[in-house]
Design a protein that fits this description.
Number of helices: 17
Mean pLDDT: 83
Strand content: under 5%
Number of strands: 2
Low-confidence stretches: 1-22, 370-374, 409-418
Radius of gyration: 28 Å
Length: 418
């Protein structure tokens, strides 16, 4: 008998047994009342136990969502764990075959950050591994991945209903033609079906041609005459006002739509337009607080770009491919841009991450401590060629600006806040 049911019985209101006391005629329905009371008692205990389990698992849920939002949407937590363990104790594990030193370093560093982000996670994993509870370990890792997936789904649903507001330069005065009702759930009128959204989804390599003849280019991209693939970033990855064909780095990832989407995911819809004036003003139950996100890096930017791209598209159900466009390739291409810059000193990376952290948190962490098979309308060369042509010149500008700042000539020179 449970503690709660014993207490009920001791009160004298309900007997401990369905058998009546000697010499007393049972009241009709008394047995049923006893069973109901016992069930209520057990339900209460179950709720208490469920609450304890929920409280115990909550940090692990949040770290799973942190992983998906800040490290990678396309690397499973289980993969990261296995690679990290293989690097430590089983270098012959087939999972390491063909993996570059850079990838191994990423897994090793990410695993260490994962453990640091959720106190108790390492102890839980070691307990399951050391006690031979392989099946339970598999279930636990699968549960972590399901929590990461739920976080991604919540972000997708949020942006699905709000992106047509966030994408406007001046939402309070801009008028869309044709109109898109705020909060409209159907995406059938988005993508290349809408001229304003088509301009945002248009690959950068078609940008000049799109500006000259928007209707023609939108039609060709919609019917597949022109490939919309991963050879060029969508134009929403660039700030419209800052965009310069001769300097692709200056406006890259500074689009206001990305910033608003990021704020909404981190802090909630109420903070999307104006953001925070201080990190302490983040809502207590926001994803930023729950997931322990106090700064962002390139993985977060890649995630936001994927979420925004899907929200703008006409596709209703999340999937890895949208005709010729592959989301995992898009995600990895963005990370590669940062890697290429870091290999050359990382000045642009430092600048853009600083700018993003200021836009989102109000500070930067370091301040505190023609046909389908022929793209005839595109200029020649890949995205790497385009960015590579201007990289050294742009870095020289950043260095000059920083030297000017250090000599007391003024501020950081970044774009204005959204």
């Amino acid at each position: 008998m449970t503690i709660l049911s014993s207490s009920i019985a001791a009160s004298g209101n309900i007997p401990q047994s369905s058998d009546p006391p000697s010499g007393r005629v049972p009241v009709p329905g008394e047995e049923n009342l006893a069973q109901q009371a016992s069930k209520r008692s057990q339900d209460s205990i179950d709720r208490i136990n469920d609450k304890k389990a929920e409280d115990y698992l909550k940090p692990f849920k949040h770290v799973a969502q942190w992983f998906s939002r800040t490290k990678s949407m396309y690397v499973a937590i289980g993969t990261n764990l296995r690679v990290a363990w293989a690097l430590t104790s089983n270098i012959e594990d087939p999972i390491l075959e063909g993996m570059s030193d850079c990838e191994m370093d990423w897994h090793r560093t990410t695993y260490q950050q994962l453990l640091k982000h959720a106190p108790g996670l390492e102890a839980r994993l070691l307990e399951l591994m050391s006690n031979g509870k392989e099946e339970e370990l598999e279930h636990f890792v699968a549960w972590l991945e399901s929590q990461a997936s739920q976080g991604r789904t919540a972000d997708t649903n949020l942006l699905k209903s709000r992106i047509t507001w966030y994408m406007l330069e001046k939402p309070s005065v801009d008028l869309l033609v044709p109109t898109l009702p705020p909060g409209e759930q159907s995406k059938s009128n988005r993508g290349f079906n809408h001229p304003y959204i088509a301009a945002l989804l248009c690959p950068r390599k078609y940008h000049a041609k799109f500006q000259a003849d928007p209707k023609r280019m939108a039609r060709k991209m919609k019917d597949g005459t022109l490939k919309v693939d991963n050879n060029s970033l969508p134009f929403f990855c660039y700030d419209r006002a800052l965009f310069d064909d001769n300097d692709g780095w200056k406006s890259l990832f500074r689009n206001v739509t990305l910033i608003r989407a990021a704020r909404a995911i981190l802090f909630g819809e109420s903070k999307a337009m104006n953001g925070l004036d201080h990190p302490s003003h983040a809502p207590r139950k926001s994803n930023a607080c729950n997931n322990g996100i106090k700064k962002i890096d390139e993985g977060f930017i890649a995630m936001i770009c994927c979420q925004v791209r899907f929200a703008l598209s006409s596709v209703e159900v999340w999937g890895p491919v949208d005709l010729d466009f592959h989301y995992d390739v898009f995600h990895n291409d963005i990370l590669s841009i940062f890697e290429d810059d870091c290999a050359k000193g990382g000045y642009w990376t430092e600048s853009i991450l600083r700018w993003w952290n200021v836009q989102l948190f109000g500070y930067h962490p370091t301040d505190l401590d023609e046909d389908r098979n022929q793209d005839s309308d595109a200029e020649s060369g890949t995205e790497k060629d385009f960015l590579g042509r201007a990289h050294d010149r742009h870095i020289a500008m950043l260095q000059a600006a920083r030297e000017g700042t250090e000599s007391g000539s003024g501020g950081d020179g970044g774009a204005t806040a959204a």
